[in-house]
Amino acid sequence: MTKRYSRIAIIGGGPVGLGVAKALGLEKFPQIDLFEKNSKFGGLWNYEGPTTTRPSIPSVHHSDPEFNNDEKSPMYKYLETNITKEIMQYKDFPFPEECETFPTRQEVLQYIQNYGETLSTDVNVLFNSNVLSVEKIDDVWKVEVTIDGGNIETREYDAVVLANGHYNQPYIPDVEGLKQWNKLEAGSITHAKYFNESLDFKDKTVLVIGNSASGLDIALQLSTVAKKVYNSVRTPSPVADIKIHGVEEIGEIVKYDYLNSKTVVTKDGAHYKDIDAVIFCTGYLYKFPFLKSYLSGDDALLTNGERVRRLYKHLFYIPDPSLVCVGLPKSVIVMPFAECQGAFIARVLSGRLRLPSEKEQREEELKEIEARGEGKEFHNIKPPLDTAYCQELQKIIDDQGLNEGFEADRWGDYRVGLRKESGPAKARRYEQIVEHANSLRENNEPYRLLRG
């Protein structure tokens, strides 16, 4: 047996925090408090509407005086999932039958809130509770929090689970001329986090940076009403052969020249002028704005925000496993992935599952660095690595004979099959949406969701 923790704090009531809380609730801890800053579950799925906020350009470190700790949800008005409801659902908790294959943001939010109602009564949920500070003092975690939007309290815990989400600090690279462009026309540069709908860019020439899921979707939505959309990519889009009217794929931007007819220059030397707006769809940096411990020295949890350091299995802080970070990996199926992590965490914090020695954990992290580097790709666990990760956590549980407690869905043939089919299914859906967007453009109509 290893150390059993009694008092657990979970920070965040989004899809990841709830998946972990589900597992912890079955371990009969004397105290589990879940802090959620909003009035309801949902995390980033709580759509907040349009905003005038703009990101730091380029990105700045969280310790920089210009750092903007804006926690606005990155949801936009017309958004549907890019994976099917069958694969994204929690264990034994399907989406309603009337929900379409690719749910809307509203349907996902309702689904998450319904799932939150299934948590054990041993999980004490505190809504409207904004965590201000998390610090380890004399072997005790001190959590300073505004309770129900009112009094500030300091509560004590033995372990803290950070599930605050990682879609808050936009990443915008420092490219030649970008600062000057922003200075000369403030507001013409933004990030996917602040995008709301296509009408905000009607009759404009827009440059979209990146062809991840958000980059492709935003470029497509803009195509219905924008004068022209350029989509800057480093590598060709996997759906590059599907043509969107009004969207042109161009190379990586290496220079912004505002004074020369608002021109951008690509890596291959091509020039594109009269750019009215730039939207960066370049991802996010990791941050824990409330964390006061373990942020300096060789074992600093965070440095430049591109990855979270010194973690075992992307979860446990190796020098002090009473600090747990969840939901860090990218390119994963979030809800079942959270339950998989939750099942593992619950057994560790209850003292039932033995972690390897600190030396072995550090060696494993070094192997991961060798495989994926120390930058933004470190937490990018693309298929089939995501499947292998969940299978590995389950194998550790099985090998130690710890099947009692919450069991996440096993990534066997059925789930692996769903995972393999999700790519082709989305490609087929993308073709339908492109046809829909092209039709809207021809009829001079702004983007709206394709339903039915």
From TrEMBL:
Coiled-coil regions, chain positions: none
GO CC annotation: endoplasmic reticulum membrane
Pfam families documented for this protein: FMO-like
Name of the featured protein: FAD/NAD(P)-binding domain-containing protein
Biological processes annotated in GO: protein folding
Family, similarity comment: Belongs to the FMO family.
Cofactor: FAD
Keywords: FAD, Flavoprotein, Monooxygenase, NADP, Oxidoreductase
A GO molecular-function descriptor: flavin adenine dinucleotide binding
Keyword field contains Ribosomal protein: no
